[in-house]
Design a protein that fits this description.
about 180 residues; six-stranded mixed beta sheet
């Protein structure tokens, strides 16, 4: 007789400045392009909520499924971002290492804080475009920003979505921090 597999679910939303790589990161993690609208794909800009999921291999007869809500980063689509992060306990906070925190980074963090999101996993994207020193500087700025708004930093993962660098480590971190949530 084969063991009974139960499934555990968790949903996380992205947050961060426009063009910092939220959608590319979700695609690298899941293989699913959350930009479902033709216009989004043509313009390479998220305007509405997108969805994807990541199925982890069962451990101890429990399969963990992590759902992602990909939100727009552009200030013009703030209402869509609000709809995507409502009810979320932990966010995947995405900041490009080559730019660091930008205006919508701060705006999204303020919104997360006001909505009661108390913790974030940070993905520092585009690390292939900068030196290790610049990655460290961006990580430090993000850590300070999170502290300023009372949001706990669970972990920071430097990644390059196009090459896949750091993606496996981020997956393992997501599993570690969210599977028990």
């Amino acid at each position: 007789m084969s063991p009974v597999i139960t499934t555990s679910y968790c949903t996380i939303a992205t947050a961060g400045h426009v063009d910092h790589g939220k959608t590319s990161l979700i695609k690298a993690l899941t293989g699913i392009n959350p930009d479902r609208l033709k216009e989004e794909q043509e313009r390479q800009m998220t305007t509405d909520l997108g969805f994807a999921h990541l199925d982890f291999e069962p451990k101890d007869n429990v399969k963990f499924v992590l759902g992602f809500i990909d939100v727009p980063g552009h200030g013009k689509f703030l209402k869509n971002m609000l709809a995507g992060v409502g009810g979320i306990e932990t966010a995947l906070f995405v900041v490009a290492a080559d730019e660091g925190p930008m205006p919508q980074t701060v705006q999204h963090l303020k919104i997360l804080s006001l909505l009661g999101v108390r913790s974030c996993i940070v993905a520092l994207t585009k690390i292939d475009l900068v030196s290790e020193r610049e990655v460290a500087a961006a990580a430090s700025k993000v850590k300070e920003l999170l502290a300023q708004y009372g949001v706990e930093l669970l972990a920071t993962y430097p990644v390059a979505s196009l090459s896949g660098k750091g993606i496996d480590e981020l997956k393992a971190g997501l599993y570690q921090h969210l599977n028990a949530a």
